[in-house]
């Protein structure tokens, strides 16, 4: 069967970090299936092997539709209409970009919700090329109303985020990545000050796995650094409390995705904003994730160059 | 009129011009008056199957619109809305007065139905090719809760089948023997490139049971719509006049 062959290739090429974050998701979803009869998992072949035991135990609530992403999200909408809590999982570009209209209509417009969980964030699999890159996913979700977006920065942040998402009844996008910080920060998603340079200092907000690089980038500069794994809803109250005149956003997806949140939150104050993230251009290059971080200026040295140019 | 269906060589004879079912006719006229217009062919192509479903098949009641054990009717071709609203009014799901300002700024009745705004409407539809996937998920969700009595009916058009999303659902439902699902395709031969070999074959090749009937013949529709078995999904192709 071609699906199995393709999937084997996909899984064989996953890096250790990706497997770690994804495995935390799979293990937690397995527990949730056993704990809550409302929980259902909808797959489109990706990670299906990892859910084989869950599928054996809960054949009615682990649904693998094959390589059919439109159907995957449509089925999630139907499950939710029938009263279940669907967790929908595949590669980010296929989950959010390919099935965008199903997310908009089969979930949102039906007034039902699901928990979408992606792997393959931004340039997690650069050797696969443009088709498997998805820097625009958070921006696309952000065109919709009322979604919570979690971008965990460490595998240990994944289980509590998934548990809270499934226990609630909101629309949630949980974006897993191969990139990670050296330690988890957790919290409820409100801005958490990791480095305090005092009142009025420039504020750098690092989202998810870009915190470590951000901290390294501002070493020796008076910059306050705050962390969040929850870009939506963005902690605007926390931003107003922490921000002086200069704000720097560092996001591991499309540059500028959260610019509007900062602009709206600080609309009554003179301020300057530097929004860093992944560029729009198809680079047509392979290499490693570290290569792409460097090319998009999201490694410590690149971030430092941008921050220095911005702050003078 | 008669149409030769290439799929199986059978001929479905459409005996007479469509007549709007008695209880629905005044309500449909009321909605037409609000629109200061007559309705397009899509309304008349669908009104008979809607009436047979609501009058004789669906286990639903306006008194218990959220009953978990109810049948579900999903109108996927959401533009066939005037007849749908008229039938919902005839069956007590919405007040007939709502028809008088349909599509207006204060109306709950739009050019495509919205499940949040209209009692009895199971899905919001308009963009084609969404109902069958939602229907597959609904059957799975009911089954996972042990609700095996309710049936899920999804109404599509032959041109709507152009959308590839339908074929994802057709293949999956057939492969997994999703017995709680009935698809209904109103065939007025409006698909631009047609369906050589017939519509029913798209389903039967994937393991569905299929019935093809005169879409204006109420008894034939009833027989077809109750002709499912218990181990595979069922499709009823309701043949009506061309572009009717």
From TrEMBL, chain A:
Gene3D superfamilies in the cross-refs: 3.40.50.920, 3.40.50.970
InterPro entries assigned to the protein according to its UniProt record, in alphabetical order: PDH/Transketolase (IPR051157), THDP-binding (IPR029061), Transketo_C/PFOR_II (IPR009014), Transketolase-like_Pyr-bd (IPR005475)
Pfam families xrefs: Transket_pyr
Highest taxon listed in the record's lineage: Bacteria
SUPFAM superfamilies membership: Thiamin diphosphate-binding fold (THDP-binding), TK C-terminal domain-like
Span of domain Transketolase-like pyrimidine-binding: 19-184
GO-annotated molecular function: magnesium ion binding
PANTHER family: PYRUVATE DEHYDROGENASE E1 COMPONENT, TRANSKETOLASE-LIKE PYRIMIDINE-BINDING DOMAIN-CONTAINING PROTEIN
Stated name of the protein: Transketolase
From TrEMBL, chain B:
Transketolase N-terminal domain boundaries: 45-235
Keyword Transcription: no
Family matches, as SUPFAM superfamilies: Thiamin diphosphate-binding fold (THDP-binding) (SSF52518)
GO molecular function: magnesium ion binding
Keywords: Thiamine pyrophosphate
Stored Pfam families: Transketolase_N
InterPro entries (alphabetical): THDP-binding, Transketolase_N
Cofactor: thiamine diphosphate
Family statement: Belongs to the transketolase family.
Protein name per the record: Transketolase
Lineage: Bacteria, Bacillati, Actinomycetota, Actinomycetes, Micromonosporales
């Amino acid at each position: 069967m071609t699906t199995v062959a393709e999937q084997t290739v996909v899984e064989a090429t996953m890096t250790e970090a990706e497997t770690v974050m994804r495995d935390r998701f799979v293990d937690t979803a397995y527990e949730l299936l056993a704990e809550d009869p409302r929980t259902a998992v909808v797959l489109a072949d990706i990670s299906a092997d990892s859910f084989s035991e869950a599928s054996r135990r809960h054949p009615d609530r682990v649904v693998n539709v094959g390589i059919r992403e439109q159907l995957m999200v449509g089925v999630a909408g139907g499950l939710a209409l029938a009263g279940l809590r669907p967790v929908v999982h595949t590669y980010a570009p296929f989950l959010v970009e390919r099935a965008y209209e199903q997310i908009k209509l089969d979930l949102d417009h039906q007034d039902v919700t699901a928990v979408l969980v992606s792997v393959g964030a931004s340039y997690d699999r650069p050797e696969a090329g443009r088709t498997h890159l998805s820097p625009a996913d958070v921006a696309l979700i952000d065109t919709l109303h009322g979604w919570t977006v979690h971008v965990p920065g460490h595998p240990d942040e994944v289980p509590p985020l998934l548990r809270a998402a499934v226990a609630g009844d909101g629309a949630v996008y949980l974006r897993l990545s191969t990139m990670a910080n050296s330690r988890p920060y957790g919290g409820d998603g409100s801005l958490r000050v990791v480095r305090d340079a005092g009142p009025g200092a420039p504020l750098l907000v690092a989202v998810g796995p870009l915190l470590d690089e951000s901290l390294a980038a501002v070493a020796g500069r008076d910059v306050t650094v705050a962390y969040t794994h929850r870009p939506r809803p963005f902690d605007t109250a926390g931003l107003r409390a922490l921000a002086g005149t200069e704000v720097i956003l560092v996001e591991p997806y499309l540059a500028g995705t959260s610019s509007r949140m900062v602009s709206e939150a600080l609309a009554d104050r003179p301020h300057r904003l530097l929004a860093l993230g992944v560029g729009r251009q198809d680079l047509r290059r392979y290499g490693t994730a570290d290569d792409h971080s460097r090319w998009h200026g999201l490694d410590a040295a690149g971030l430092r160059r941008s921050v220095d140019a911005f702050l003078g | 009129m008669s149409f030769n269906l290439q799929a199986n060589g059978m001929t479905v004879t459409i005996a007479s011009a469509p007549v709007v079912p008695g209880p629905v006719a005044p309500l449909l006229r009321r909605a037409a008056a609000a629109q200061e217009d007559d309705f397009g062919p899509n309304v008349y192509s669908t009104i008979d199957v809607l009436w047979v479903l609501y009058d004789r098949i669906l286990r639903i009641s306006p008194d218990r619109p959220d009953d978990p054990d109810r049948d579900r009717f999903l109108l996927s071709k959401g533009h066939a809305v005037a007849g749908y609203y008229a039938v919902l009014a005839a069956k007590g799901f919405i007040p007939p007065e709502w028809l008088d300002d349909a599509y207006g700024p204060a109306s709950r009745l739009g050019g495509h139905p919205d499940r949040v705004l209209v009692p009895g409407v199971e899905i919001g539809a308009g963009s084609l090719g969404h109902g069958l996937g939602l229907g597959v998920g609904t059957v799975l969700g009911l089954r996972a809760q042990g609700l095996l009595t309710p049936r899920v009916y999804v109404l599509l058009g032959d041109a709507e089948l152009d959308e590839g999303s339908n074929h994802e659902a057709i293949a999956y439902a057939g492969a997994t023997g999703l017995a709680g699902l009935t698809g209904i395709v109103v065939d007025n031969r409006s698909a631009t490139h047609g369906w050589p070999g017939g519509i029913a074959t798209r389903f039967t090749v994937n393991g569905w049971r299929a019935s093809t009937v005169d879409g204006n013949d109420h008894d034939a529709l009833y027989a077809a719509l109750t002709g499912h078995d218990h181990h595979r999904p069922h499709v009823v192709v309701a043949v009506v006049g061309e572009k009717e």
